Amino acid sequence: MRPCREDYSIRSGRVQSPDPRGLRRLYREKVVHNFETKRLTQDGRLLDIIIDGAIFYDENNQPAGQVITLRDVTQEKRTARINQALFRISQALYQFRTLDTRLEFITREVRQLLDVEGAMVILLDEITRNFSSARPSSTIWIPASA
Fold this sequence. Notes:
Elements: E1 4-11, E2 14-18, H1 21-29, E3 31-41, E4 46-57, E5 63-72, H2 74-92, H3 99-114, E6 123-125, E7 130-132, E8 140-141
Antiparallel strand pairs: 1-2, 1-3, 3-4, 4-5, 6-7, 7-8
Helix pairs in contact: 2-3
């Protein structure tokens, strides 16, 4: 994992100022397990991080240091979101009678998963080699040269 700059809190989809909650909790409770936060890497990527830490003491029972581990769970969370979306799609498809309404539902799920305003699901007819989307007027003709 690449070095991280600082802890950041995420509110309303925006990166806010450094997030000291984990450190405060560590000093207050002397141990932190599974504290979830976000970290910004030096190259600008935002990572989902789980922090575990503990304060250790010297022979006079005075704080001598801390041991902290940060685990990048970005890919695990992404995989879980994808699996949940696929499950929702598989459980809901029987409710839609037409292909267009099924594709519109899948498109909404994809937009939500990717957190984007626009997305399109395109199907390939393997016999005619035509692509089509949820709207018949948006059929795309691709030559069968491939």
